[in-house]
Design goal:
- By secondary structure, the chain is α/β, with parallel strands linked by helices.
- It has a domain at 66-219: NAD(P)-binding Rossmann-like Domain (Rossmann fold), CATH 3.40.50.
- 33% of the residues lie in helices and 15% in strands.
- It has ten helices and eight strands.
- It has an eight-stranded mixed sheet with strand order 3-2-1-4-5-6-7-8, sandwiched between helices.
- Strand 7, helix 9 (158-170) and strand 8 (174-177) form a beta-alpha-beta unit.
């Protein structure tokens, strides 16, 4: 596959590295300009470009930017793309977002609503947000390894779900489908499943038993 990545922080770099190791074509971008990425191409084995270059390049586009920046994503150029949302709501960074604080929305739901605000929108899946990036690079194991770590994902679109599952498995993890984007709150920041190593059975039980009423949005107590 051709994968464009928007964001070159820890998340973008880790996914670029694993995707190239899985023999995908990858282009990474950031908001500061191509000249700041000169070492990334050789270091990660991928192409570099602007945000618009990465979107045009990718059949799949990974969003790896701070959550507060999602309204800046271009709706028209992402139309029809498979979009993998890796974001988490961090109020101390993103500011307060009432729809999330009041548990009326999910991070991926807000992103999907933005990207589908015009005709022919993007097809969104939530993936790779519930693991530390160092562990995403280190904890992958071959298929059928006993106790292999599982990672949750969510999507409304069947093809987006299939892509998220495929990449999760290629990166060395068991993929656990948590349902639609409206269920993605079960593994957002601050939940029992967030960044806690579990096998598939343990993760499925944890997601099923998570009580939204007891959670603090963004993992930080409301003031």
């Amino acid at each position: 596959m051709k994968i464009g990545i928007i964001g070159a922080g820890f998340v973008g770099r880790a996914i670029a590295k694993l995707a190239t190791q899985s023999h995908h074509q990858v282009m990474i971008s950031n908001s500061r300009g191509v000249e700041t990425l000169s070492s990334y191409g050789p270091g990660l084995g991928c192409a570099i470009g602007t945000r618009d270059d990465a979107i045009a390049f990718g059949d799949v586009v990974v969003i790896a930017i701070p959550f507060h920046a999602y309204p800046s994503l271009p709706v028209a150029s992402l139309a029809g793309k498979i979009v993998l949302d890796t974001g988490n709501y961090m109020p101390e960074r993103d500011g307060r977002i009432p729809a999330l604080d009041q548990k009326e929305a999910t991070t991926s739901g807000l992103l999907s609503a933005h990207l589908n605000s015009e005709t022919g929108g993007a097809r969104v899946a939530k993936a790779f947000n519930a693991i530390k990036m160092a562990e995403l690079e280190s904890d992958g194991k071959p298929v059928n390894t006993i106790g292999r770590r599982a990672l949750p994902l969510a999507a409304d679109d069947t093809h987006a779900r299939d892509i998220a599952i495929r990449l999760t498995e290629e990166f060395g993890f068991d993929a656990l489908d948590a349902g639609g984007l409206d269920e993605s709150w079960r593994f957002e920041r601050g939940t029992p499943a967030y960044c806690v190593p579990m096998n598939r059975a343990e993760l499925a039980k944890t997601l099923a038993n998570t009580d939204r009423d007891t959670l603090h949005p963004g993992g930080v107590a409301l003031i």
